[in-house]
Amino acid sequence: MGIRFDSVTVAYGNTVVLDALDLTVEPGEVMALLGPSGSGKTTALRAVAGFVRPASGRVFLGDRDVTDLPPYRRGIGMVVQQYALFPHMRVEDNVAFGLKARKVARGEIRQRVAEALDMTGMAAYARRHPRELSGGQQQRVAIARALAVRPDVLLLDEPLSALDARLRSGMLAELARLHRELPDVSILYVTHDQVEALTLADRIAVMDRARLQACGTPQELYRAPANEFTASFVGNANLLPVTVGSGGVVFGGIELKMDTAGAVAGAGATLCIRPHLIGLGDGPNRLTGTVGDIQWRGATHRLSVEVAGHVVTADVRELTDPPANGAEVTLHFAPGDASLLPAGVGHD
Amino acid sequence: MLVHSRTGKWAVWLVFLVLFLPLFALPLLVILAASFAGHWSSVLPSGFTTAHYTAATRGEALQALTTSLVTAVTASLLALAVGTWAALAAHAAPKPVRRVLDTLFVLPVAVPSVVVGLAVLVAFSQPPLLLNGTRWIVIVAHTVLVTAFAHQSVSAAITRLDPAYEQAAASLGARPSYVLWRVRLPLLLPSLSAAAGLCFALSMGELSATMMLYPPDWTPLPVLIYAATDRGALFAGSAVAVVLMTATLIVLLAVSRVRTKASYR
User: Fold this and answer.
1) What is the CATH number of the domain that holds B133?
2) Is the pLDDT confidence value at B263 over 70?
3) Mind telling me which residue stretches traverse the membrane in this protein (chain B) (predicted)?
4) Cα–Cα 20 to 30 A to A128, which of A165, A283, B40, B200?
């Protein structure tokens, strides 16, 4: 079953926290809502769950308009950042909660609880209380609890934020596996972490300032971002103000070759280039500047180079002889790796 | 106040003992000593006797103890039910309504209990609700007096309750009533039992409103203690007071055991 936002607006008093969101999540699709805090992504999820009421617009689950339905009649599964496991119930009772509330027959409850716990690898912990579990285990129980009711739609609100980095990547793989096992479940995944979104999502909806900024597959958003916010939030692109010329652009007096199709010569634009696509040394498109900062990151060095008054970030393979701060270096990138965005639209 | 040095800790303990002993513990110990005394004419009591206890645990006194226990249990359960209900309703209501309700429930604390007693007396002395002369007027007065405390402590607990629990429950398909009985009330149980204990203790010791209302066949213990001291039987009164204290403490201990079992975090 899919999810459809039809021009959903949510406001608290005079503050609009979600501005006319139009978005469709296809049946069986994983849609990540990606954005910084305050971007409206959690509000959108809570509008689907029924915990916030849109000021205008409708929310659909499948063909059903659920805008006026209370949360308990929507048939969703939800996992939140702090898990919210019921502390007075054992793991098995937590997982059985939704089934008991829906008056499922007792024999079937037992079977479905066992199934959900198996699926999340928590069968051995059925008799424990939540306080006796680690964060990662609590997370699995929360997921099992949501899956036990066999929802058509699974809402995940920053489900991995409370876990440490190592657990997070493990759980990310688990979530991907769960989705392969449950191909019909649509997942709305709210996160501020681009890695989670890029790894897990079929499509990503990038949110900022209560608005949908861009929506597309991870590859589309990464390779050809539609605007500056998307470019910088997904993959931390370098954004350089340029003037469009013929067969290239001009950045601070430096001529750079690239595809300028669709741009008007003489107009201002923003050049977008990923840090890992910039190399150190001579090449086709040269940027010469002084090193402002250099960080060793194991396999790579991150160089922050000041070029014509702008900081260009480059991730290069680990250097045996890294330049010193203040040294003059030359960077280059291939013409095909850069893309051109309209200048400064909607974001600073 | 947190003190970490060794001498500092000793000093704090010393100050605590100097202040606490005379103010809180000694008067209670004096009552305990007096309850066993035949005479008390010098510094220490003399003529050790258990006769007062023999009197304090049978006949009129035993009757009064039962009366007090029944009154306190009934009043605190009623107060807990009404107070919790009101607190839950107020929490769900819009803010102005909540404020009015909260104020309404603080009134019995703000108003002197004598006034509450008089109010109950006047209100229930005529048909259609003629309770004067029955035990119910005492129970009603106690309920009115202690509901305020029940409401306040439950209300505070509800505000502290993380809404994530009830939202998780609702998202799993549980109706509001199911969420109330299976999630919210169990999570509130520690606070509910604390409130019940408080109400019980307050009701066990209530005198001023009770004095105006109690019928001859429903004499709670505090009234008996007052009557005993009034006629000069201080030692007999002390024994009854110790019985009252002990009974209250036993119940409070039992309630606190429930609370320990019911707290999860």
Assistant:
1) 1.10.3720.10
2) no
3) 12-37, 69-92, 104-124, 136-158, 187-214, 234-255
4) A165
For A12-29, what is each residue's pLDDT tens digit? 888 999 999 999 999 999
Q: Does A155 touch chain B (CB under 8 A)?
A: yes
Among B95, B172, B192, the strongest candidate for a mutation testing the A interface, having the largest count of A CBs within 10 A, is B172
B162 vs A contacts (CB less than 8 Å): 82, 84
Query: Average pLDDT of A43-55?
Result: 93
Nearest-CB residue to B171 (from A76, A85, A131)? A76
Environment class of residue B171 by beta-carbon count within 10 Å: exposed (0-12), middle (13-18) or buried (19+)? Answer: buried
What is the tens place of the pLDDT at every residue in A115-172?
999 888 899 999 999 999 998 899 999 999 999 998 989 999 998 888 888 888 888 8
- Is A146's Cβ below 8 Å from some Cβ in B? yes
Which of B165, B186, B262 lies closest to A84 in CB terms?
B165
Domain that holds residue B123: 53-262
Chain A CB contacts of B173 under 8 Å are: 72-73, 75, 98, 101-102, 149
Does B124 map to a domain? yes
Query: How confident is the model over B150-166, as pLDDT tens digits?
Result: 998 999 999 998 999 99
C-alpha distance from A1 to closest chain B C-alpha (Å): 17
Q: Annotate A11-24 with b (16+ C-beta within 10 A) or e (fewer).
A: beeeebbbbebebe
Set of chain A residues whose Cβ sits within 8 Å of the Cβ of B172: 72, 77-78, 97-98, 101, 145-146, 149
Asked whether the beta carbons of residue B169 and residue A87 sit closer than 8 angstroms, the reply is no
pLDDT of A345 over the 60 cut: no
Can you list the domains of chain A with their CATH numbers?
3-229 (3.40.50.300), 238-342 (2.40.50.140)
pLDDT in tens, A264-282: 888 888 888 989 899 988 8
Residue A115 CB-density burial (10 A; 0-12 exposed, 13-18 middle, 19+ buried): middle
How many helices (DSSP H) and strands (DSSP E) are in chain A? 8, 20
pLDDT at B39 over 90: no
Decide: A337 and A288 in contact? Cβ < 8 Å. Answer: no
How many C-beta atoms lie closer than 10 Å to residue A25's C-beta? 24
Distance CA B223, CA B216 (A): 11
